[in-house]
């Protein structure tokens, strides 16, 4: 029996090649996208699960409550986890990562900067699972002066040779022995590094509770109730931290984040990771694409039901139960989707590199052919087949043999249902279109927004060490000799990412108060180099060197926070309030107010800030001319090497640095665009099929109308009218949904674009145009056909 | 075998109803060959559909092998279609996507026959209807007469007790028509299959042993047919 069904199904596919093509194409696009999105989602969900103790590891993060602000930091103080381990026996293990940032390693003649270098407790490989290529995980970081490299790093220095036992130097006095090489940290990790050092003596001793700068992890028993540990934190604060923070009104508590939920759920300050809502969104998009393809199938299958009605009647007459007929039609739709699955696998294989580049993932084809994934894919596809086939099966199997076999059958039924489905399809397409549009609006808005400074053509060079800064003035004057170098300045951090927070004693309307401000050390060239404006008072000047201890600049946000009416001349204590028995910190006065500028990406609000006058800061900013930029950069490099023959010349462009903050959103935006385009394509395929079908049905009517004198345009209008109506119906459904969801999405951004009415108008017009283009071909073809032909054929 | 008691069929029309069949009382015995005649719109086809359980009477009672048909479940009725009833249509109504062989095989599939049984049964029918050479052709590749032969082969495949034929020769040339009618006669005589046909043609009607005449939904007369023809 099944063979009989499959035979019929297969012959039907071959017989109506046009409709089969539309169906299979639609389903294939739907299934291909579904598979890709499924891969994406699977990848997102796989983060950090490869560790053996994944379900027992927790990251401990800090919640620091200031009187007017809550900071959520990934970092903690060094003694936190050691004291937890000491005090509570249920803490099985811990590991701390001390960030060492970018480290220049030397091995003989080879020298490279390695990003993301950390010093870690020797327990690190006991807590986390990393595969060792060389070395012993148990002892790797036990001795001081050890380093464990990732494979990629090791290859850079040692090629294919053994790295174990070799020595890497960081400067003349410090060297590390390679005690292990591990496989590169898998991409699906929330935390990545290129080399791990054993703790330095200072790091080993670090026991201050005042600074938050290390990342800490705990291993707790399986299924541990974290509230037990969390309930101990108030005690911990009273015992260790109250003495430092209480008088500033700062409260500190911690949160335990299960390792496997960090990537998708953690939302700490400055953290750029995944987001569970995108997992939902992409799953929904995949679902909608499959739904749209299913709708095409349903529409075409029911529209063409007349062709199958005789068969239904006959089978019933020969003793087929309705259920058997439904089974037959479901077999057909499932066959169709399984065919699409096979094609889709091919497409996925071809598109995977492209998808990876769009999504920023590195998904391999072999992940696709994992039995587990295939099983999910197959069940989704079979399910899609069932959904697609369900309504046609239900509808087709309902035909009464007596009616259909008389030959007077007219497939009027189901047309309301079909129309509804078309409306749904276009509503979904329009929602996707509007959403994509607004996402791009927001991304553009962020890219183009006036940051309060000029980020174009600014090179930043990070002095890695303190010592070469002595020769800064020489470098500066050498560089300025080139007319294409407009200005050179230094600041304590790159302008694209000014982090940190320092406590100052500040004169408020209610006396001196301790408060956290974003600190920045700048020299007298900085404001002018960056094109920042002073709105009151004056900037720093090399003529007034006393500013280093007597004068500070504040930004407008700081003025606002302090409620100062006249900011100039207000006192700022460089350091906290004077402590009993300690010398009073130097007191400076506010000498100028800088117009607010963005200190980090636009995901972060502008914070109150205090600028200190410091010559020779860590990060050089060089403003160059747009013309001959390449040559100028070359010139700068040449000068750099002349003055610092021992130091690598590594630079970045400020605007690129700035834009890299939006990479995640941009990637998601690109995925979204691709899929919303394809959604519309699927909907159009369906519409095209439907238009072809209805035009075929009305050929005789058109013939009669033309004989009676209808013009081509009036016939085209007649045929396009129905579909136009359906698309128009989809507008009031799509617009509120799109508006609501994008309004919510934009809530994530402190600086956001307004959703303009014109986005909706244009999206609707565009949808309408696409719909017309789709149907107009069929309409014109029917309208210009010679009526004699269509009338004679009856 | 078939017994209708006061069967009527009507459709709602406006505030009243339009009668298609009125008060039909009728018995058909096993082994009979009955022809139903009447002008267009007299209700012939409806009567045949009711007899074939494709439509339900609006009033009255229908006993098929002493079972009241109205009370049967869909499943039970389907059983009857599988095992007791065969249909032959004016427009042949073969499944276009299936070959001659597969068309004949289909009712056997529904009957749940094993594959080997099906094979021998279809082979036997192809042989009997001289269609062996055409078994892999599709309906569109056959002439009308040949299609109708397949239609009859399909109808008798499941060895039904009764065949309902709705103007089986309506679309055929007279030569072919005669061939088909002879076949019916033979099935009736040799295999003892009860045959009920609707026809316009007096000549074809004569093949039966009884003619029912319908006019405006009324059963007009019973005519004892002349049995000379042979």
TrEMBL record, chain A:
Compartments, as annotated in UniProt: Cell membrane
A Gene Ontology term for the protein's cellular component: plasma membrane
Transmembrane segments: 21-41, 278-300, 336-355, 375-396, 416-440, 671-690, 757-777
Residue ranges occupied by any ABC3 transporter permease C-terminal domain in the UniProt entry: 284-401, 674-787
Keyword vocabulary terms for this entry: Cell membrane, Membrane, Transmembrane, Transmembrane helix
Pfam families: FtsX, MacB_PCD
Record membrane topology: Multi-pass membrane protein
GO-annotated molecular function: transmembrane transporter activity
Domain MacB-like periplasmic core: 20-200, 456-609
Protein name per UniProt: ABC transporter permease
TrEMBL record, chain B:
Pfam families on file: ABC_tran
Cellular component terms per the entry's GO annotation: membrane protein complex; plasma membrane
Keywords per UniProt: ATP-binding, Nucleotide-binding, Transport
GO molecular function terms listed in the Swiss-Prot or TrEMBL record: ATP binding; ATP hydrolysis activity; transmembrane transporter activity
Annotated signal sequence range: none
Annotated ABC transporter domain residues: 2-230
InterPro entries listed in its UniProt record: AAA+_ATPase, ABC_transporter-like_ATP-bd, ABC_transporter-like_CS, ABC_transpr_LolD-like, MacB-like_ATP-bd, P-loop_NTPase
UniProt similarity note: Belongs to the ABC transporter superfamily. Macrolide exporter (TC 3.A.1.122) family.
Protein name per the record: ABC transporter ATP-binding protein
């Amino acid at each position: 029996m099944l063979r009989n069904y499959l035979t019929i199904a297969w012959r039907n596919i071959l017989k109506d090649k046009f409709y089969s093509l539309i169906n299979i194409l639609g389903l294939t696009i739907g299934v291909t996208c579904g598979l890709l999105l499924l891969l994406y989602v699977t990848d997102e969900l796989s983060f950090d699960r490869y560790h053996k103790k994944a379900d027992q590891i927790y990251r401990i993060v800090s919640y620091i409550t200031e009187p007017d602000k809550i900071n959520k930091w990934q970092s903690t103080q060094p003694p936190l986890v050691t004291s937890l381990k000491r005090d509570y026996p249920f803490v099985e293990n811990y590991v701390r990562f001390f960030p060492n940032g970018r480290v220049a390693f030397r091995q003989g003649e080879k020298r490279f900067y390695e990003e993301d270098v950390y010093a870690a407790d020797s327990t690190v490989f006991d807590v986390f699972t990393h595969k060792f290529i060389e070395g012993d995980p148990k002892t790797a970081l036990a001795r001081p002066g050890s380093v464990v490299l990732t494979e990629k790093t090791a290859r850079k220095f040692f090629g294919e040779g053994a790295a174990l036992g070799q020595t890497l130097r960081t400067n003349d006095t410090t060297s590390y022995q390679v005690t292990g090489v591990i496989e590169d940290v898998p991409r699906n990790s929330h935390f990545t590094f290129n080399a791990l050092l054993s703790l330095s003596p200072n790091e080993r001793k670090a026991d201050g509770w005042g600074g938050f700068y290390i990342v800490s992890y705990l291993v707790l028993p399986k299924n541990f109730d974290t509230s037990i540990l969390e309930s101990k934190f108030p005690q911990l604060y009273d015992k260790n931290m109250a003495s430092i923070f209480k008088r500033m009104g700062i409260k500190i508590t911690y949160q335990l984040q299960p390792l496997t939920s960090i990537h998708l759920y953690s939302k700490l300050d400055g953290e750029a990771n995944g987001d569970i809502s995108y997992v939902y969104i992409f799953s929904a998009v995949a679902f909608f694409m499959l739904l749209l393809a299913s709708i095409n199938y349903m529409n075409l299958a029911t529209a063409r039901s007349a062709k199958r009605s005789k068969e239904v009647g006959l089978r019933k007459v020969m003793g087929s139960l309705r259920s058997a007929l439904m089974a037959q039609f479901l077999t057909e739709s499932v066959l169709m989707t399984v065919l699409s699955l096979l094609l889709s696998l091919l497409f996925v294989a071809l598109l995977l590199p492209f998808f990876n580049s769009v999504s920023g993932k590195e998904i391999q084809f072999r992940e696709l052919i994992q039995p587990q994934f295939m099983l999910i894919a197959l069940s989704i596809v079979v399910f899609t087949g069932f959904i697609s086939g369900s309504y046609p099966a239900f509808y087709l199997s309902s035909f009464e043999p007596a009616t259909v076999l008389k030959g007077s059958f007219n497939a009027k039924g189901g047309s309301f249902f079909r129309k509804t489905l078309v409306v749904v399809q276009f509503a979904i397409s329009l929602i996707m279109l509007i959403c994509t549009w607004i996402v791009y609006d927001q991304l553009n808005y962020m890219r183009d927004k006036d940051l309060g400074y000029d980020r174009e053509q600014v090179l930043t060079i990070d002095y890695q060490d303190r010592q070469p800064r002595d020769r800064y003035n020489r470098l500066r004057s050498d560089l300025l000799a080139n007319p294409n170098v407009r200005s050179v300045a230094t600041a304590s951090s790159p302008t694209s990412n000014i982090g940190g927070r320092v406590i100052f004693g500040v004169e408020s309307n209610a006396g001196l108060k301790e408060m956290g401000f974003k600190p920045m050390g700048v020299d007298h060239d900085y404001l002018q180099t960056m094109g920042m404006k002073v709105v009151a008072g004056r900037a720093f000047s090399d003529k007034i060197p006393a500013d280093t201890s007597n004068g500070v600049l504040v930004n407008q946000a700081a003025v606002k926070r302090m409620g100062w009416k006249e900011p100039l001349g207000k006192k700022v204590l460089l350091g906290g309030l004077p402590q009993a028995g300690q010398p009073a910190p130097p007191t400076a006065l506010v000498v100028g107010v800088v117009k607010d500028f963005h200190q980090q990406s636009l995901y972060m609000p502008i914070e109150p800030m205090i600028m200190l006058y410091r010559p020779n800061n860590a990060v050089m900013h060089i403003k160059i001319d747009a013309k001959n930029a390449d040559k100028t950069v070359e010139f700068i490099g040449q000068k750099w090497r002349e003055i610092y023959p021992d130091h690598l010349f590594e630079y970045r462009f400020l605007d690129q640095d700035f834009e890299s903050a939006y990479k995640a959103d941009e990637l998601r935006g690109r995925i979204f665009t691709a899929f919303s385009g394809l959604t519309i394509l699927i909907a159009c395929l369906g519409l095209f099929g439907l238009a072809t079908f209805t035009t075929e049905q009305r050929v005789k009517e058109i013939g009669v109308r033309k004989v009676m004198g209808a013009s081509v345009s009036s016939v085209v209008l007649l045929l396009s009218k129905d579909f136009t109506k359906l698309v128009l119906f989809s507008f009031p459904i799509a617009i509120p949904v799109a508006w609501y969801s994008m309004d919510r999405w934009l809530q994530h951004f402190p600086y956001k674009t307004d959703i303009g009415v014109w986005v909706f108008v244009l999206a609707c017009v565009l949808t309408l145009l696409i719909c017309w283009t789709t149907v107009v071909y069929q309409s014109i073809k029917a309208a210009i056909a010679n009526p004699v032909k269509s009338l004679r054929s009856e | 075998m078939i017994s209708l008691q006061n069967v009527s069929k009507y459709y709602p029309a406006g505030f009243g109803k339009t009668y298609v069949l009125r008060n039909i009382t009728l018995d058909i015995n096993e082994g009979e060959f009955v022809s139903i005649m009447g002008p267009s719109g007299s209700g012939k086809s409806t009567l045949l559909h009711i007899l074939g359980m494709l439509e339900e009477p609006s009033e009255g009672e229908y006993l098929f092998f002493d079972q009241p048909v109205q009370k049967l479940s869909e499943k039970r009725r389907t059983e009857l279609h599988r095992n007791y009833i065969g249909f032959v249509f004016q427009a042949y109504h073969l499944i276009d996507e299936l070959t001659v062989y597969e068309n004949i095989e289909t009712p056997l599939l529904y009957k749940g026959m094993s594959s080997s049984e099906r094979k021998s049964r279809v082979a036997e029918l192809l042989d009997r209807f001289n269609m062996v050479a055409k078994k892999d052709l599709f309906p569109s590749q056959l002439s009308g007469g040949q299609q109708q032969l397949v239609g009859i082969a399909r109808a008798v495949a499941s060895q039904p007790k009764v065949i309902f034929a709705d103007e089986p020769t309506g679309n055929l040339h007279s030569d072919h028509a005669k061939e088909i009618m002879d076949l019916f006669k033979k099935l009736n005589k040799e295999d003892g299959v009860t045959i009920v046909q609707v026809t316009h043609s007096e000549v074809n009607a004569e093949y039966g042993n009884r003619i029912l005449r319908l006019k405006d939904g009324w059963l007009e007369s019973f005519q004892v047919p002349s049995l000379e023809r042979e």
